[in-house]
Amino acid sequence: MKQYQATNTIEATPEMIWKVLTEASGYQEWDPYCERIEGTIALGEKIKAYTTLSPGRAFPVKVSEFIPNRKMVWTGGMPLGLFKGVRTFSLTPQPNGSTTFRVEETFSGPMLKLIGKSLPDMTEPFQKFVEGLKRRAEEGV
Q: What would the pLDDT profile of 1-43 be if each residue is shown by its tens digit?
């Protein structure tokens, strides 16, 4: 198993963060590693993510869990679970009105050893993702 994660405190409500997080057309405005997201971010929907880490390549994922203002999970990979990526977005409201946001991706499956060598280090992209989301949500867009 291979895992990446990033966490940040955002001075915004979970509702505001959720609005930014589920607006597919806006990702490239605040996530420096996102070229675009195609599709509708909603439960059961299939979307395609395009990143600057692999220009022009689509990463198809399914929105497999969708609890508004709390949690969202994107799942993708190869058939039969040979390689699987699960990205989880979690929002936890704090008593002072801020929100703790966490994004985590876990890669697993029998092909991980082979495919894992070609995966880019997601540490910086995840950190930039949460920083961009924080800026965007705190602007109140």
A: 999 999 999 999 999 999 999 999 999 999 999 999 999 999 9
What's the CA angle centered on 105, arms 119 and 70, to 5 degrees? 155
Residue 99 inside a domain? The answer is yes
Give the domain range for residue 116. Answer: 2-22+65-138
CA distances to 6, 45, 49, 61, 108 from 31, rounded to whole Å, are 14, 21, 12, 18, 25
d(C-alpha 34, C-alpha 36), whole Å: 5
Q: Could you identify the residue written with the tokens 């609005």?
A: 19
In a domain, 17, yes or no: yes
At CA 53, angle to CA 50 and CA 55, rounded to 5? 55
pLDDT for 116 equals 81
Query: In total, how many domains does the chain have?
Result: 1
CATH number at residue 132: 3.30.530.20
Distance from C-alpha of 126 to C-alpha of 6, rounded to nearest angstrom: 6
pLDDT of residue 44: 98
